[in-house]
Design goal:
The chain has 17 helices and 18 strands. By secondary structure, the chain is α/β, with parallel strands linked by helices. The strands form four sheets. The chain has a six-stranded mixed β-sheet with strand order 5-6-7-3-8-9, sandwiched between helices. Helix 3 runs antiparallel to helix 4 (110-125) and helix 15 (471-483) runs parallel beside helix 16 (495-501). The chain is globular, with a radius of gyration of 28 Å.
């Protein structure tokens, strides 16, 4: 379906990848992974034809129809939601418009009648008569209610626009689908529906995603962009990870043996090259040395931060009591008389379709908002640290460097300590002097996680901490939260993190009440 031959790309003077030869066939889903900046989205754009490669070429079956998840949310503001989805098959949409235009004329010529007949035939062959019902089915699967289907795109909120554009990419049975971060801002039900859609899909799918659980469920292959190359592995993300770790170990072992051999030979030469009785032997060793090639391991683009949390003091038995708390926003109740307590072993995932209500609960627990009624009481021996979903206020209009920014939150103010700490969070060299106001989304999250680690708190509260993080940083955060010995309250779109960290689920329902279960995330979803 798609053949990539000798493909190369230079960007900003840097070689992102080179001499790439790949083939993507029907019936398979390819997950594209790599470190931030490796070129995942750019590679997808080359396949879509919106970015030109530096070398090589891409061949796509001319009979195949390709659909791409668009990123510009304002592109279809003048159209209705349903029409925007149908435009996923542009020929079908244009055929319908042309047909309707002929019928709208006051009178029709014979030529008009013939043309209308041709359009009717093409429209039917493209599935035009079922197009609105098909579009509606996809929209409902993604959680877009039917009362929104005929609104103008300009009148719907951004998170709905994201779903509409995804529905557009899936509409009309395209032969090839290219998806860049399709699960962003999707609730769990929408993600499950998308997974089932892609698992049943018979065409070719290429998807960039940071969601490990999603990649495991839908992918038949993993396409890894690293070492300046693009390599394909059969299997899902977990299979790729295990395979890549094994290959890396084998490469290191082989390199180590070869390096040891060279060091032995170099030592022999150094000791005996001046010794006339051994000179002939030294010469033979030197020739052998020249024939041995020690391949240097390529510098991997993957960088794993270290995330670890440790409480400064052991908290007592009482952790948190929330009693009959209610809260309204813009005159609408979003938390309704909720009560729960937190025990010693609890790591709680807070979920809910209304993310505003989830964030409001975190703000109440952190003391940033006051409840309209009810009471929140922390145990006197606990200390809390909060990672807010919107943390831009920590960085906007701030002229501090990274190292001076983090110094505010550290008991140890020494430069050497702070540089060492930041190095583990992937800020090295002169990077530590970069102003925090210009950091990327992922860099800001790593700064906020650093702040959290330095707090020494016994209760961690994190609202969507995986936003903007790459797979490596998400895995590091996952490990850090799993290993933390005390309480965690968090929300996340990352299924694997939620499943492996939480032992209790609190869901905020549509009416503002809560459902509270002591179980894993997967067990909760099966209830």
């Amino acid at each position: 379906m798609i053949t990539v031959s000798d493909l190369g790309l230079q960007f900003g003077g840097q070689q992102l990848f080179n001499k790439v030869d790949l083939q993507f066939t029907g019936g398979n889903c390819y997950g594209i992974i790599g470190a931030n900046g490796a070129g995942k989205s750019t590679f997808l754009n080359i396949l879509a034809g919106t970015v030109e490669s530096t070398s090589g070429h891409v061949f796509i079956d001319p009979k195949a129809r390709m659909s791409v998840l668009k990123q510009n949310q304002s592109l279809f503001d003048e159209y209705t939601v349903i029409d925007t989805v149908i435009m996923g098959n542009l020929r079908l949409y244009e055929c319908g418009l042309a047909k309707d235009a002929i019928y709208a004329q006051d009178s029709m010529t014979d030529e008009d009648g013939i043309r209308a007949s041709e359009l009717e035939e093409e429209y039917a062959a493209l599935g035009g008569w079922e197009s609105e019902s098909d579009a509606s089915r996809i929209l409902q699967g993604l959680g877009v209610d039917t009362d929104l289907h005929y609104l103008q795109m300009s009148d719907v909120e951004p998170k709905i626009k994201v779903k509409v554009l995804l529905a557009q990419a899936l509409f009309g049975k395209p032969d090839i689908i290219l998806l860049d971060e399709p699960t962003n801002n999707l609730d769990i039900k929408s993600v499950v529906w998308l997974e089932e859609f892609l698992m049943d899909y018979e065409g070719t799918v290429l998807v960039v995603s940071h969601d490990r659980y999603f990649l495991n469920n839908v992918c038949t292959h993993i396409v890894d962009i690293d070492y300046g190359k693009i390599k394909m592995y059969v299997g899902n993300y977990d299979f790729w990870f295990e395979s890549s770790q094994l290959i890396q170990k084998l490469m290191k072992d082989q390199n180590k043996k070869a390096q040891q051999k060279i060091e032995e030979l170099q030592s022999f030469i150094a000791r005996f090259s001046a010794n006339k009785s051994k000179s002939k032997q030294a010469t033979s060793r030197r020739k052998l040395l020249e024939k041995i090639s020690v391949e240097e391991l390529p510098a991997s683009g993957r960088r794993y931060p270290w995330v670890g949390f440790k409480a400064e003091r052991e908290p007592g038995k009482d952790r948190l009591f929330v009693t009959e708390v209610s809260k309204s926003f813009d005159g609408k109740p979003i938390l309704n008389n909720i009560s729960f307590s937190v025990g010693k072993e609890d790591k709680i995932a807070i979920i809910g379709k209304n993310e505003l209500a989830v964030t409001m609960l975190f703000k109440l627990l952190a003391g940033e908002e006051e409840p309209d009624s009810g009471n929140i009481k922390w145990g006197v021996s606990t200390t809390q640290a909060y990672f807010p979903k919107d943390h831009n206020s920590f960085f906007e209009d701030c002229d501090l460097s990274i190292i001076d920014w983090i110094r505010q939150f550290s008991a140890d103010k020494r430069e050497s300590y702070l540089r060492g700490f930041l190095g583990r969070m992937l800020f090295s060299g002169d990077e530590v002097y970069k102003p925090v106001s210009v950091l990327s989304g992922g860099e800001k999250v790593r700064c906020m996680l650093s702040k959290l680690m330095l707090s020494g708190a016994s209760v961690l509260m994190l609202d969507q901490p995986t936003n903007h993080l790459d797979l490596e940083s998400i895995a590091a955060l996952n490990n850090g939260l799993s290993a933390f010995a005390h309480n965690v309250l968090f929300s996340s779109h990352d299924h694997q993190l939620t499943q492996t960290v939480a032992n209790r689920i609190i869901e905020i329902n549509a009416d503002g009440s809560i459902t509270d279960r002591a179980c894993s995330y997967d067990e909760y979803l099966q209830l």
